[in-house]
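Assemble and predict.
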Amino acid sequence: MNAFLATIKTSFRRQLTYRAANLSGLFTNLMFGFFRAAVLIALYQEQTVVNGLSIRGAITYAGLTQAVIGFLSFFHWYELMHTVYDGRVGSDLLKPINYFHYWFGIDIGRAFGSLIIRGIPLFLVFSLFYDIILPGSILQWASFGMSLVFAMIISFSWRFLVNLASFWTPNAIGIGRFAFGLSWTFSGFYFPLALFPDWFAEFCRLTPFGASIYIPIQIFIGNIQGNALLEGLLIQLIWIFILIALDRIILSLGMRKLVIQGG
Amino acid sequence: MQNNLKLLRKFLGIQIRAQLQYPVSFVMEVISNAIILGFFFIAFALTMTQFGEIGGWTLGEVAFLWGIAEFSFGMMDMIFSGFDYDFFGPMVIKGTFDQLLLRPVNITLQVLGSRFVLRRLGKILEGLIIFIVGLWLVDVEWTIGKITYIPIIILSQILFFGSLFIIGATTTFWTKERLEILNIFTYGGSEIMSYPMHIFPRAIRLLFTFVVPAIFLSYFPMTYILNKPIQLNAPSIVPFLAPMIALILFYLSLKFWQFGIKNYQSTGS
């Protein structure tokens, strides 16, 4: 447990040291937030609510998705693969900490570092430019926070799983590109899922990707409450359970398969 | 000059042969890239089913903008990938760029020949399909002028995006790291060029008119092709400025690049 906490702390500090990179990423995501918000405003025109999503909700959605990119790191993460290909995985496996916990610790530190230095400031600046929706009660804030943490765990266990492909093949980057492409699409990152035809939105919501971005944002803007909110959290928990179980199984299979390159 | 071209052909030949080493996996990757990239447009199309139009433009009309921007960016990203700052930045940091400087061959040529990402055929294919969707959905009143202007728009966009890559690569001489902020103009530029640009707030529009002149490469020319009104206060000649703007920007980017090389100081690593 001590090693786990130490890993989180080190990774958190490391994330905070990249000031220029964080600032540059913040500004970039902010601009993309403005682009996406402008597109949504142009689509809505005079309509205030479409498919249950208000224009204010849609704008908030555009800002939030950009704010959580760094935190969830959902779209681009090949770090574990790189350690397999350059041989660092050998020393990582010798560390006095479970391999899954080791990477999980690194990712928790990275995610929360990024949230504090990049995500939250981005959203604050975004909110100066637009009339956004904020959660109205402590309970809503708390459930959003919980859902966001769940989302991060789903995101990590999905990325870990994808990266494990490198235990089998020397060219897992291509698999990663495809896998992360799926997360772009079905998470509702491009456009709010509520604006899709119902059958497709419902399908996306049930995937781990929808569970990672769409559910916390829906909670934030107050579109799901009460039982629907509990159902959303439950979907997330189910995915956490499934993905972590898969991670463990595939990892133990991969251990027998892994060929460590001399570094 | 002829010698240089021969050399460039050789550089690129090696790159292409290496990437085609596993043809089946290569084709799979191109197709899967095309699908994955195409999802953005599919998501947009699904969203459009709720709205019907954006800024007075239909899905098919937007597909013209979107398809051509994706196609051109893909072409550029394949040809100019040596200047991709995500790749070039690390080269400067690690000092591998210094190795190129030591060779008795034109440095621009070497950087151009250092990387040719054939995989970008996926993005090119995706752009082409979206453009075809546009052709299928919109009944354009074609004239000889319009038909000849389409390839000119594409070439201009390739030069335009290429200039941004060259400028981006040059900045890494000083910053010594890749700056994500450049993505606003490259990937962000191609994203906003995919929409009728009058929908964006004034500040964003001005930025993409006078700082990075993206609007001349996509929105203005396409109003001519599709007979759409320019919903902005602009002279009627603006649809035809694409090649001129692209050439000027390209010239300036090469000047900046040469200036960067002249003042380059190695990291020493």
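Chain A touches chain B through 33 residues (CB under 8 Å).
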